Amino acid sequence: MSITSTYAFLQGFFNGIFIDTNAPSNNNQFGESLINGVFTVNRPGGEILVNLGPKISTPANNNLVAQKLAALGGSATSSIGVQGVPWGAVPYFFQNPLGHQLSDMLIRIHFDFHIPTPWFCSDVYGTMSIYLFAFLDKAGHLQVVVDGTWFVFNGGGPFCVGAVKSGLLNAIPSVISSVQALLPAITSAAAGIKFSRLYFLPGDGTKATIAVEDATADLSIGLLL
Q1: % of the chain exceeding 70 in pLDDT
Q2: Strand (E) positions, 13-69?
Q3: Structural domain boundaries of the chain?
Q4: Can you give the pTM of this predicted structure?
Q5: Residue range 23-58, pLDDT digits in tens
Q6: How far apart are the C-alpha atoms of 42 and 26, rounded to whole Å?
Q7: pLDDT averaged over the chain?
Q8: How far is residue 199's CA from residue 30's CA, in Å, rounded to a whole number?
Q9: Edge to edge, what strands does the sheet with 31-35 contain?
Q10: Exposure string (b/e) for 170-209, b if CB count within 10 Å is 16 or more?
Q11: DSSP for 9-28?
């Protein structure tokens, strides 16, 4: 049976807390709309759902993040979050505006960190984000690739900002390699299946009558044959 899901975002599109209401629908055609901050998706029967949060934010992966930060002398201050971000809102968009269609959405994997500094500098608090691009190839198969990275931080002044930035930049290749190792797990449920459409749903894609979730913490991919 088709489901019409309505997502009311309280903190911005695919960001923060949202209220999800679901109702049966007689319309078995896919459709989506965004009106006054309310995102509505008609989800046909036969939808295959890939919930990314549990595949990415596992105890093992969170421990791996902690280990990599420890190598920089830091620590994780959050678990891994997974979020959908429209291409135009990705922070490196202006480096290559034509890299994707404006209607495309990227997958943001992110975590917060703390790096202590010597007494003459302020401690560093920041966020590391790795962006993935999910798409259907010419054969209709689900593909997910690493698209880019971005980090922001506060602190480190007045003398340690450069060293912190260099340390984070040097860590990025290792972070990308670790994320690339996760990609087979993301696509395994849909491996070898030909799809006609890919779309994103905030949260875990529940079909419960009503739910309250965090779009910054979890994201799902919907796939139609």
Answers
A1: 100
A2: 17-25, 31-35, 38-43, 48-51
A3: 2-49+195-224, 52-187
A4: 0.94
A5: 998 888 999 999 988 999 999 988 999 999 999 999
A6: 10
A7: 93
A8: 10
A9: 31-35, 38-43, 2-9, 17-25, 210-214
A10: ebeeebeeebeebbeebbeebeeeebeebebbbbbbbeee
A11: ESSSTT-SEEEEEEEEES--
Residue 140 tokens read as 């209709």
Here the tokens at position 130 are 């790795």
Residues 6+ positions from 170 with CB-CB distance below 8 Å: none
In single-letter form, the type of residue at position 126 comes to G
Task: Please give the average per-residue pLDDT across 129-142, as a whole number.
Answer: 95
pLDDT at residue number 85: 98
Strand partners, 114: 75, 125
More confident residue, 201 or 185: 201
Query: 38 pairs with which residues across the strands?
Result: 8, 35
Distances (CA, A) of 188 to 3, 12, 183, 184, 193: 25, 31, 9, 6, 10
142 with 103: CB under 8 angstroms? no
Question: What is the side-by-side strand order in the sheet with 48-51?
Answer: 48-51, 219-224, 197-202
